[in-house]
Amino acid sequence: ASTWVPIIVIFAISALKEMVKSEDLYVGDVVRMNRDEEFPCDLVMLACSNEQDQYAFVETINIDGESNLKRNKTSCEDLIEKYISHKAETLNQDNLLLQATTLRSTDWIIGCVVYTGNETRIGCSKNKPPTKKTQIDKQFSVITIFVFVFQLALVIALSIAGIVWRSEQGVKMWYLDYTILSESYKLETIAFFLRFLTLMSLFIPVSIKVMLDLLKLFSSLLISVDNHLWDNDQNRGAISRSTSITEQLGLVSIALVDKTGTITCNEMSLTACSIGKLVFGVDDQYQQQKKNNNKNKSPLLNDKHLLDLINKKDPQTINFFRSLAICHSIQTFRKTKELTYNQTQSNQIESSTLADQQKTIQLDYQIEDIEEVCPVPDEQTLVDISRSLGIKFVRRDSNIITLNVLGNEEKYEVLADLSFTPVRKRMTVAVKRVDGIDQRFGQLGLRTLIVAIKYVDFETFQQWNTIHYEKALASVDRREERVNQACDIIETDLTPLGTTGISDKLQDQATETIT
Description:
Shape: elongated
Helix content: 25-40%
Number of strands: 17
Strand content: 25-35%
Number of helices: 16
Structural class: alpha+beta
């Protein structure tokens, strides 16, 4: 007993969760982070609350400015099975949770600390802020240097003239006491130089710099109190965070914006699409809707020809929207809401001398709700329009995607998910039916995607997955390049189904602001 008691105490203390400061974290520590908490260091995710597919979502707005959620996965799935088979998995960027990112749409994660302090990714990118000078400050510095050089040359010339005058005329003037200076020629030269330097010191107007700073401060305050810059919807005005903003804005002649979300509201709708040789959405109805600036509702929902094709269950049209409902990275989570309903019943007694008796019945209900989390707004738009047309994405359970196609439930097993990358510029999902069953848009300013399909027999897929894809994922050197090469092998001989054109609503007065 004397041996077991200390061991039990040590294990009990070690098993307790401890709240520690971020500065006390060391490499190798295992930490738990909850929803909406910011990661204090770089972590490798070991487990998360989503036990089905082991995905967690993080917000990286503090790193890259993107408000879209990024999907991360645990470092190893089916740990016991892979431990028995001695199968290892390499880590990649999908397993890394970076410092300064925030956990979203996930209750908790457990991670292992791999980098801390200045060794984190955001710590390695820290640089001293560059010294910024406005155009007026640069011109003032050049003028100051020019005036100083001119002042120095003038002082030297006057000093030489003073020494010459002293040697020729000054000695004759007995009332000027030069007895001390005459003993040292060098001391006399320095005295003349300092005397004229002091007299010419007003050449550089020091007060003008102070006046310029005061004018900048005053003009920046005018921006904060300008009623023309007040937004009634957000109930706030412009905030000037720099005193030099007015003079910098005055120099702007051309504004170039190339980032979605900067001048748009991220309220996207599928404006047009092409299925085979048919084009939908690009007609007078779309132009009228664009003129009315009403882009919240897709014009495809009112396209009679498209609705007729769907009602007739046209195979190409159904496959087009079925592909939109399958090929995406949306994750679903089940949420249970508890509701309490109180009902009061009154039982009246026939005797007039007795009061009514009331009985309260409490009923508890549990409503299961499905929450969708999408890291890419474009994908959510495509899934929503497919759902509105009858091809509904229901849920994703682990690697099973459930659809409701015109009232019929379909389930697909995800065999491989080739995520979108800027190099390949495409995304491919290889699925198996579980139950055994362009330029014109670009001219309109729409974001275009091509939807294609390819039927692959299971043996061919297994051969590609084993020889190319899994081997590329397990490689240590040039992993991303080899994964892209493996994806290129399977992403060939695709049959185009059509194209999509997505529009994003401009923010209020965006055109007036730029022009």
